[in-house]
């Protein structure tokens, strides 16, 4: 038998390869797969990377964008021990950057009373912080760190546009575990809760996104990564049970804008003290049985005095309590019927100095409407 020349052997090999790839439908990748450098068989899915659902990818993208703008806040508060010694206690919370130059929004209860505030960024660098302004009524505060670089910051969304059922994401430092992401939905809107200080916080966002001690002050984000709330409170003292509450971001916007324009936050003052009455007591004082807030005192030079409001003219004892009578009875505040002692304070909580407060008062058998330009209370931090 004759020996084929080398070029004939090459032709045979090429013909065999063509047959395998066309007739048997093999490909080069199949032939070479066992010999790839990893020493393992590859799959197309592994080569393409992990497959995430659109919702998972949305969570990942938001976390990557917001993680570096979320901070860990430590505060040192000195409290008196049983032996009358001052003992430092460390409190922790969260916050988020509003501006690239280090302004941070958080809860007032995270920073209140702290003699020393420190902020830890996502890169673990620690900075001393100073308090710029606080608003205890809405449990809000702004602090600042001094940095020599531009920092990532978050965009503010619109909490008025929220609907029950939409997805939300919370980022914070629960139990000191930095950079924790949880997800959930808006469970309810317009909730009223009692804060630790005893004041009522109205219009809160309820969510089932896990919020635990240490999350306070951190951002609640929508699916676009915009801040729509500040994580503020949980139901129950131990930890998350699916009932968390956030302060709507629109409550903070006027404060942020006012500070940017004037360098301080104004607190409104009216200049009166009141006593709630209704029913039998109101009738005995020859006032409408629906009652209202009976003005006791009016401060001299206050907006209330300038608007002509009147305090008591004499005192009587009611269940051994000295009650001033003869003053104006406030029956409505900004068009809303007075439902208790908190009605006036709640209205003031949504006002700034210089704005108008409309009161409906009962005096001498007649009902009168009074518009009062609110004054500015002394500044305090």
Keywords for this entry:
381 residues, alpha+beta, Thrombin, subunit H, Pdz3 Domain, 6-stranded antiparallel β-barrel, 6-stranded antiparallel beta barrel, 9 helices, 22 strands, elongated
Question: Can you describe this structure in just a few lines?
Answer:
The protein has 381 residues and is α+β, with helices and mostly antiparallel strands.
- Report the biggest beta sheet as strand number plus sense, adding barrel if it closes: 6 strands, antiparallel, barrel
Strand content: 35-45%
Broad structural category: alpha+beta
User: What is the number of strand segments?
Assistant: 22
CATH class of the largest domain: Mainly Beta
Low-confidence stretches: 23-49
Radius of gyration based on Cα positions: 32 Å
Number of helical elements: 9
Could you tell me the CATH topology label of the largest domain: Thrombin, subunit H
Helix content percent band: 10-25%
**Mean pLDDT value:** 81
Name of the CATH architecture of the largest domain: Beta Barrel
Task: Supply the number of structural domains.
Answer: 3
Q: What is the topological layout?
A:
Blueprint (H helix, E strand, L loop, with lengths): L5 H17 L5 H5 L11 H5 L5 H13 L3 E11 L5 E12 L5 E4 L1 H4 L4 E5 L5 E10 L4 E6 L21 E6 L7 E15 L5 E8 L11 E3 L5 E8 L9 E5 H14 L5 E2 L2 E6 L1 H6 L7 E7 L4 H4 L7 E5 L2 E5 L3 E5 L2 E2 L4 H8 L6 E8 L2 E8 L1 E2 L5
Structure description:
The protein has three domains: 6-48, no CATH class; 54-263, Thrombin, subunit H; 268-376, Pdz3 Domain. The chain has helices at residues 6-22, 28-32, 44-48, 54-66, 108-111, 249-262, 279-284, 303-306, 342-349, and strands spanning 70-80, 86-97, 103-106, 116-120, 126-135, 140-145, 167-172, 180-194, 200-207, 219-221, 227-234, 244-248, 268-269, 272-277, 292-298, 314-318, 321-325, 329-333, 336-337, 356-363, 366-373, 375-376. The chain is α+β, with helices and mostly antiparallel strands. The protein contains nine helices and 22 strands. The longest helix is centred in the N-terminal third of the chain and has 17 residues, at 6-22. The protein has a six-stranded antiparallel barrel. Strands 7-8-9-12-11-10 form a six-stranded antiparallel barrel. Strands 14, 15, 18, 19, 20 and 21 form a six-stranded antiparallel sheet that branches. A hairpin with a 7-residue loop joins strand 7 (167-172) and strand 8 (180-194). The chain is elongated and about 115 Å long.
């Amino acid at each position: 038998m004759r020996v084929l020349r080398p070029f004939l052997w090459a032709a045979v090999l090429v013909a065999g390869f063509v047959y395998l790839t066309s007739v048997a439908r093999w490909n080069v990748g199949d032939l070479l797969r066992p010999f790839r450098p990893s020493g393992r068989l590859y799959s197309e899915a592994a080569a393409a990377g992990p497959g995430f659902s659109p919702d998972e990818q949305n969570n990942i993208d938001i976390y990557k964008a917001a993680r570096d703008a979320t901070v860990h806040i430590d505060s040192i508060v000195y409290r008196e021990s049983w032996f009358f010694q001052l003992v430092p206690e460390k409190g922790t919370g969260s916050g988020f950057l509003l501006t690239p130059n280090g302004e941070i929004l958080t809860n007032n209860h995270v920073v209140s009373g702290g003699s020393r505030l420190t902020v830890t960024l996502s890169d673990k660098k620690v900075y001393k912080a100073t308090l710029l302004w606080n608003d205890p009524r809405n449990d809000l505060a702004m602090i600042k760190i001094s940095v020599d670089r531009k920092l990532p910051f978050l965009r503010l969304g619109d909490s008025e546009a929220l609907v029950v059922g939409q997805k939300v994401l919370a980022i914070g430092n629960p139990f000191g575990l930095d950079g924790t992401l949880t997800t959930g939905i808006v469970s309810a809107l317009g909730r009223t809760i009692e804060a630790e200080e005893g004041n009522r916080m109205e219009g809160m966002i309820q969510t089932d996104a896990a919020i635990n001690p240490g999350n306070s002050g951190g951002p609640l984000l929508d699916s676009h990564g915009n801040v729509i709330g500040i994580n503020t409170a949980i139901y129950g003292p131990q930890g998350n049970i699916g009932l968390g509450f956030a302060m709507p971001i629109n409550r903070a916007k006027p404060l942020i804008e006012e500070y940017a324009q004037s360098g301080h936050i104004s607190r409104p003052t009216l200049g009166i003290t009141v006593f709630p009455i209704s029913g039998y007591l109101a009738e005995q004082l020859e006032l409408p049985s629906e009652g209202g807030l009976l003005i006791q005192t009016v401060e001299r030079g206050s907006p209330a005095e300038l608007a002509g409001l009147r305090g008591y003219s004499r005192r009587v004892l009611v269940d051994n309590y000295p009650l001033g009578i003869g003053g104006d009875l406030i029956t409505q505040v900004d068009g809303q019927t007075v439902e208790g002692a908190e009605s006036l304070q709640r209205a003031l909580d949504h006002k700034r100095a210089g704005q108008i407060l409309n009161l409906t008062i009962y005096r001498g058998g007649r009902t009168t409407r009074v518009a009062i330009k609110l004054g500015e209370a002394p500044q305090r931090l």
